[in-house]
Design goal:
The complex is a heterodimer of chains A (181) and B (522). Chain A has 9 helices and no strands. Chain A has 181 residues and is mostly helical. In chain A, α5 (69-85) packs across α6 (87-108) and α6 crosses α7 (118-128). Chain A is elongated. In chain B, the strands form 4 sheets. Chain B has a 6-stranded antiparallel beta sheet with strand order 4-11-12-13-10-16, with helices on one face. Chain B starts with 11 loop residues before the first strand and ends with a helix. With 522 residues, chain B is α/β, with parallel strands linked by helices. In chain B, a hairpin with a 5-residue loop joins β6 and β7 (244-250). Chain B is built from 12 helices and 17 strands. The chains are: A mainly alpha (181), B alpha/beta (522). At the A-B interface, α8 of A face α6, α9 and α10 of B.
Chain lengths: 181, 522
């Protein structure tokens, strides 16, 4: 069977410029995902701490260990610009993060970002999962994360095929492990 | 290409250009009858189609606001997207998978076969399989359906091979790559299937039949057919005698226009067609046009659906090749011993990664979902198409509050599963999982229904005017020059994909309509 290479393959151009949003992959790789990172500091309408919390929330909502942080950063980066255009949205995001942090402080004496175990953070998310911020993120991430073409190969998905002549000569019927019918 | 004057009251005006409207328009044009098709969407041709699920959805899907209620899960998961259908020239024949199955004989006689079920509003069709056979034959020839007319079936892809191997292990007998209106060899000026996948996103090879590049250009070539895109029908007008006289629509600039007509045929899919009739209420027809029975919008059918996806310890790459690549038909029989009446088909289905994330288990998050997505290349999948029970309270109404950009109330869709639907779905989930487990599935998922692709029944056909909206020709009981030409005519849904029956009915209706026009009856 023709397999899809699921290893990370990032071209230099994509790596430097970032593939889906204005956040360059190199910036994330160099600085990490904390609130002190440059991409978080450069947020204009949401607090750096808020941006960093959104990134960790995104990973905890749809955790994929094979995905580097940059894809989660890119998936939530648009919220900063949206907060600049929509004051109600900005308030909803900041309040949602504050609420999550309050629960984290109560249970773990630290903000969400510093709660070490995923299991503990997921328990905190269950406490807010019917809230506006969680629901907005859960829905938006389905597109902003999974529709990022840069991650498709990591999931073994090949994307468009018409431009490659379809699969008629590229393994549409190449399965080789089934018992004989 | 013809263009007809807005005041030309000799034309047949058809609302919608999909399986029903596009076919009817061409058939009439071939007979020398002048036709104007009003299509709400734009005209996107084959080169415009996009092999990208969300981008294609944005390009083709009907995204106008709708509202929902009822206990069906779609109302919870997708409250403003009850249906996944197309707003573009060609209608949902751009998006359809191509499965072209005939009804079984008993499926035209649902009430007499299944009896009187509590909570169901079953009725026999006023036509039989024998009546429909010649029209089915013409539809299959027109559409180039595999397994008919000496046309070979398509080769099976990986997803099909998994389904077939599991089904054979379970002892299923009627397992094959289907009767598909997808060319397995060049035919009718169109090439053969290139196993591209993305059948739902518009066929880039043109191998799949769609009115967009078959019926419509053929009709246009006669000089008798004009397709007017970006023309959203608002209401149908009538004269003092109650005969319809034309259709008011909003053009591409949102300006209202009035196309006069000798005959009006409504083919806007089973949500928009009843909406248009209800929005056409007048002093004379205060409950809406053609609604003396009160049945317009009622008996909404969507098939008892659901999917089963399965993960294996080895790769499948189910997305390669035709989306609906094969079928198990053994459960389509009516066998009440299973605990429900009617039957269901199991047909392969695949989604790309972006749609799998959205539809595998809508609303889910966390590692239960994400671990499944990480096994995406090792997944196989099937879709359930079962007969659901017509219910009077399952219906399309006008939303009391929400209006569209033209100030018209939007369609509100209410649906509650009948107990029979739930028993059938659970049976199908079990059989689907068993098929995959028989060939080594390590994990299976009972995926809930997607927004409805098979929308049927809301202007149903009946022998008696009090039981339905249209007669056996699709002509409304109340207004003789008003017809319904889409799946909303269906009296019951049967255990099969509806498009072949919609096309066969449209060919038959064109014949009947031309006869009535020739005899000056309409």
């Amino acid at each position: 069977m023709r397999q899809v290479d699921r290893r990370t393959k990032v071209s230099r151009r994509v790596f430097l410029r970032g593939s889906a949003t204005a956040v360059p992959a190199a910036a994330v790789a160099a600085a990490g995902v904390g609130p002190e990172a440059a991409w978080a500091q450069e947020a204009k309408n949401l607090k750096p701490h808020t941006m960093a919390t959104l990134v960790l929330m995104a990973r905890d909502i749809y955790p994929h260990d094979r995905l580097a942080d940059v894809y989660y950063v890119q998936a939530v980066a648009g919220y900063d610009a949206k907060a600049g255009q929509d004051a109600a949205f900005q308030k909803m995001v900041e309040e949602g993060v504050a609420q999550l942090d309050a629960a984290a402080q109560k249970n773990h004496k630290s903000p969400y970002l510093v709660v070490a175990w995923e299991t503990d953070r997921v328990a905190l998310l269950h406490g807010v999962e019917h809230g506006a911020l969680f629901q907005k993120m859960r829905g938006d991430l389905l597109v902003s994360l999974y529709n990022n073409k840069a991650i498709w190969a990591k999931f073994g998905y090949e994307g468009a095929s018409a431009d490659k002549g379809g699969y008629i000569n590229r393994g549409f019927n190449d399965i080789d492990w089934l018992p004989q019918a | 290409m013809a263009t007809f004057d807005l005041n030309d009251d000799t034309v047949v005006c058809i609302v919608g250009s999909g399986a029903g409207g596009g076919t009817l328009g061409n058939e009439l044009a071939q007979k020398g009858i002048k036709v104007v098709i009003l299509e709400a969407g734009g005209r996107h041709e084959i080169p415009d189609f996009i092999n990208d699920e969300w981008a294609s959805f944005t390009q083709l899907a009907w995204k106008d606001m709708r509202t929902t209620s009822g206990s069906w899960r779609v109302a919870h998961d997708f409250p403003n997207l009850p249906a996944w259908i197309v707003k573009s020239v060609g209608g949902s024949t751009v998006h359809w998978a191509g499965a072209s199955l005939r009804f079984q004989e008993h499926e035209f006689k649902a009430r007499s076969t299944y009896g009187s079920l509590t909570g169901a509003n079953l009725l026999d069709w006023p036509i039989t399989l024998a009546d429909m056979e010649p029209w089915y034959a013409r539809a299959e020839d027109k559409m180039g359906t595999t397994g008919t007319n000496g046309i070979p079936r398509l080769p099976g892809n990986n997803n099909y091979k998994v389904l077939e191997a599991g089904a054979r292990k379970l002892g299923y007998k009627e397992v094959h790559t289907g009767n598909m209106s997808i060319n397995s060899q060049p035919r009718d000026g169109r090439g053969a299937c290139q196993q591209i996948g993305f059948c739902f996103q518009g066929c880039k090879s043109g191998g799949k039949w769609s009115t967009l590049y078959t019926e419509i250009p053929k009709g246009e070539a006669t000089g008798n057919l004009e397709v007017r895109p970006n023309a959203m029908a608002i209401h149908i007008e009538h004269d003092a005698q109650g005969k319809v006289t034309g259709v008011v629509y909003a053009d591409a600039d949102g300006k209202q226009q009035r196309q006069k007509a000798r005959v009006v045929a409504v083919a806007g899919n089973s949500l928009e067609s009843p909406r248009l009739l209800l929005n056409s209420a007048s002093a004379r027809y205060s409950n809406g046009l053609a609604n003396s029975s009160g049945q317009v919008g009622r008996n909404y059918l969507r098939h008892t659906t659901g999917s089963v996806y399965a993960v294996f310890d080895k790769p499948v790459h189910m997305y390669r090749g035709t989306t609906m690549a094969g079928i198990v038909r053994d459960e389509a029989r009516n066998d009440p011993k299973r605990g429900f009446v009617g039957g269901y088909e199991l047909e392969t289905l695949s989604l790309g990664l972006p749609f799998m994330a959205a539809f595998l288990d809508p609303g889910a998050w966390g590692r239960s979902l994400t671990s499944a997505l990480e096994d995406y290349p090792n997944m196989a999948g099937l879709w359930i198409v079962g007969e659901d029970m017509p219910r009077e309270q399952n219906r399309v109404t006008l939303d009391p509050k929400v209006k569209d950009g033209n100030g018209m109330p939007v369609a509100s869709v209410h649906f509650d599963d009948h107990e029979n639907d739930e028993k059938m779905r659970n049976h199908a989930y079990q059989q689907g999982a068993a098929i995959y487990e028989a060939v080594g599935a390590v994990r299976t998922f009972p995926t809930p229904p997607y927004p409805s692709t098979h929308n049927l029944g809301t202007n149903r056909m009946s022998a008696n005017a009090r039981d339905g909206v249209v007669n056996k020709w699709g002509q409304t009981h109340d207004v003789k020059n008003l017809f319904v030409s889409d799946g909303s005519q269906f009296t019951s849904g049967a255990a099969c994909n509806p498009t072949l029956t919609i096309v066969a009915l449209a060919i038959r209706q064109a014949d009947a309509m031309a006869g009535m026009m020739g005899r000056k009856e309409i």
